[in-house]
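I am writing to request your help with a piece of structural work I have in hand. The matter concerns a single protein, recorded as an amino acid sequence and a row of backbone structure tokens. Could you please explain, in whatever detail you think fit, how the structure tokens follow from the sequence? Thank you for your consideration; the sequence and its tokens are set out here:
>
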Amino acid sequence: MEKPHEPFRSYSETYLSNGLLLIFVVDSADHRRLPEAKKYLHQLISANPVLPLVVFANKQDLETAYHITDIHEALALSEVGNDRKMFLFGTHVTKNGSEIPSTMQDAKDLIAQLAADVQ
């Protein structure tokens, strides 16, 4: 049986070939699904060894969330290749959603710069 998110994955591979960078979001508190996230991430990046990679380790505000260094290890980010620009950000949504954390502003600026560098 196909998982609910499987149909969307086939689209991602189609669009990835024309992408300027890959943004990958992982739930830091969902320890059970990190091996699946690792497998999928490495499938995506294997097609293009120089595509810049930005990983958001979301839900860092939860007590059960893995720390960024644990996410780095769980996703085997040290294996993404020496020719690839890779960035890992810890993120979370603010309580009322109105405030943009400085990490997200930094990530936004980085993404804009990476996209401009590629074009």
